[in-house]
Amino acid sequence: MSEKSPKLRAELDGIPTYKPGKPAASGGAVAYKLSSNENPYPPLPGVLESAVAAAGNFNRYPDMACTGLVAELAERFGVPVEHIATGTGSVGVAQQLIQSTAGPGDEVIYAWRSFEAYPIITQISGATSVRVPLTDGDVHDLDAMADAITERTRLIFVCNPNNPTGTVVRRAELERFLDRVPSDVLVVLDEAYKEFVRDPEVPDGIEFYRNRPNVAVLRTFSKAYGLAGLRVGFAIAHEPVAAALRKTAVPFGVSQLAQDAAVASLRAEDELLGRVGSLVCERERVHAALVAQGWTVPETQANFVWMRLGERTADFAAACEKAGVVVRPFAGEGLRVTIGETEANDLFLHTAEAFF
Ligand code: PMP
After folding, report:
1. Does the Cβ of 115 fall within 6 Å of ligand 1?
2. Ligand 1 atom nearest residue 162's Cα
3. Exposed, middle or buried, 27 (CB in 10 Å: 0-12/13-18/19+)?
4. Which residues contact 284 (CB under 8 A, 6 or more apart)?
5. Which residues pair with 33 in a beta bridge?
6. Ligand 1 atom at minimum distance from 231 CA
7. Alpha-carbon radius of gyration of the chain
8. Most buried of 46, 95, 110, 347, CB within 10 angstroms?
């Protein structure tokens, strides 16, 4: 028998993964989990009812085209059904966007630090990551990102608000940036946290999609809509990008339960957005309290705050965990803390005050 193992793609070398048999970092029972930007509210009764109804058909494959969900989204956003593509979470759709545009020899540009999946899904595709550092204020440096465009650039992510900093790019600067991007380069406006934005200068990416065929807007049901566990995301993009996303989708990748719960959530939008309003109030309270304690915390428009702690990051994360709050450390850089239920936020604030 040969000692050789199957030859795997070199692109997979160095990509981090979880250890089988142990809960992944985002799993496990803790007092308060403020590490994954989840929504602390439980599903609405109507959403649970839709899930129970879907359970009766678990022996069947789901609707591959997500017909009902796509129709609902098309009406909600005033776009043709052909311009909507669904996927297994917006991270799944992001992976399809790269698969549809970039491969070995191509370049994908994004700000850094930003959403951790960008480097991973870029590496898997065989394309090269071009990371453009955030400014000193932890904001996208759109001029530098435009300067980074080369003949090889195929896709650019703009994460707005940015994960993990919560910072935003505003309408005028985004427009100026898009004017500098060649029309054969796809710009993905990742708006996972859009519903938490209150700054009127932050545009809805759909404004730009309408007259720019090279702009795709990426959205999710995981955050404001509270369906992180069901894995539903979608992109709004012109043809042929939307068609490419349908080609690269995992067949039947969005379960019927997820589709029906997403539709029920859209129909209960007023109530869900009311919850988002409460979380935004909590965000403002937490931000103001941290500033009053003396911390430097950038303005945030998402459901989390970012604290640049440098070498103190690990110690502060450990102190939080000891207090019963799990937060998300980025070694040597800083800490991202999700806005959760009031008690969790209070516990975190007490820990921060004691640690300052
Ligand atoms: N984009 C951003 C900016 C995110 O922060 C996340 C989740 N952390 C996602 C996309 C992916 O979310 P999901 O796959 O749950 O839709």
Report:
1. yes
2. 3
3. exposed
4. none
5. 326
6. 15
7. 20
8. 110
